[in-house]
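Q: Two folds, back to back.
A: First:
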Amino acid sequence: MAHDSQIGVSRVHHPEYYLKDGNVTFHVEDTLFRVHRHFFERESPFFVQVFAMAPRTGTSDSTAFRLNEVTTADFAKMLWVWYSPSHKRENKPKDYWFTILELSTNWQFPDMKRHAVDELQNLDIEPAEKIAMYNRYNIDKSLLLPEYKFLCKRASQMSIEEGEQLELHTVLRIHEARERAISSAAERGCCFPTSADADDKELEKILTDVFNLNDYVTNRRDV
């Protein structure tokens, strides 16, 4: 494994992502990555601007772009999306895709962000955790309809831990949807109605109204 040093600081070449034919070098923690610039220029307006502001940076190990806001392990996860042909067949855990979602959002990689969301949609994630993560990174809320329904229909209220994961306005909206679902069930003749007694289609209408989900569906169709 190759090493180099600059001003007394030892740096190591990443074992997988220091490529002989790479044409841009990044310095993350104590590790150098040499990869292909066109991925960053093709997909990220953020990096297009970064490269334009420093055209000579990243052309060698000694001029590598320094990325301070990411760990070596997490940067490698993002690169894996491009460089691993079998990535669609590998079952990566949610935390792996959460990392990719975070970096693709922060660095403006829209295609990678969509791919991360697609993968997360196929994983089993606790409803409150998924809602919190999607809210944090401004993901289409209409994708959360199953999670909203689960929290509304189950017998128990949200736990303290779940409430702490969610923003107050989300907690209040779920409470509103549960109350409206109870009223709907009562109107249908339930003697001792709970939110679980609400008709599925009616609950979906309530949640669509409470969370303004039609706006997200419309925006997605227009993209």
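A: Second:
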Amino acid sequence: MSTLKPPFQTLNSQFKLQIPLKLSPKPSKILCSQNPNHQPPPKPITILSILRSIPDWADGVKERRMKQPRPLYKHSDWIRHRSSARHLRHLLSSLNSRVILSLVPPVIAFTSVAAVVASYNTAVVWHLLPEVFPVLRASSLPYQLTAPALALLLVFRTEASYSRFEEGRKAWSKVVSGTNDFARQVMVSVEEDCLVKTALLQYIMAFPVALKCHLVYESDIGRELQDLLEDDDLEILLGSNHHPRCIIQFISQSMKLLDLEETKRTLLESKVTCLHEGIGVCEQIVGIPIPLSYTRLTSRFLVLWHLTLPIILWDDCNWIVVPATFVSAASLFCIEEVGVLIEEPFQMLSLDELCIRVCENVQEAMKSEKRIQETLLMKKEAASRDSSLNGHPTSGNEQKNRSNSSSPSSR
């Protein structure tokens, strides 16, 4: 007599992967003279390595700050955000800003160039160098003509980055709302409480987490989904190349095992289509940046501007060109750096908090579903008892007799 497998086990058996083990044909040889704890010799210190140390340090700090989770704003956060003391607070926390720390290499470089130009011109003016060497000076007219072009270039670059940020925010808003609505439709459409329904709701909760790990670099999807999925489901998911689409396959196969009406099945399939659209929009934002020629043009324009700025300002400022170059580089490169940071929006959004909220909302709805149904049934039964105690509703003939008896002719 054949035994029936539970639907949850049947669903998992359709995704079993067979991965052959590959063994090396020959054992590796370890010589006696080799030390397993041997460390490679340190790299020699060169001028290039010294020059690269500051940019590498700034990039490391910026990338570590980018990986930190960002909480969603609450009422207390908004009060602090618009407080009148925000300017002083922002100024005092400048050294902790990843934007300002990323500006350390270019600002130091251009300020150093300004100091070299000022030292050279001072040496020439004081006749410390032969008369062959000229004073580095130029008219400021070219800068007055190109300053509006640089301003427009920075504004358009930042605006294009913000539009990508807004598009990513809207895409994730649709994913979150679609996931919540999908879970609600499943709980309403599937009346019986079975294992397949529970598994389907778990897959729906796992979809935003899988999409977030697919978009954010160096995310540990196994650690984040170990509490949502079973071990065999998680093993299949980790073996796939595209984790969000693998979750959608789990959802589709689960829906096949449910006994649903055609209209309800069509409605649930439309929710799966919305999840596919969310994947497509997010992957386009991550894979297609702002045209690289636009980014390179902005960077080259800023570099050439600040390399020649001390020469342009020498006649009017003399040694003040050093702090003037520092302020100009810190201001303009800061605007450009903000545009580069928000160009990849998913590193800036609070995706962790959004995924946690989706799971909490669905789990709360699953827990309160039966309690709400029982409460409504009790209210319905109480209303029916009250109506029976007050009397049955009168029929149409009784209403006619009452109307005839109350008419003047009958009197």
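Q: And?
A: The chain is about 70% helix and 0% strand.
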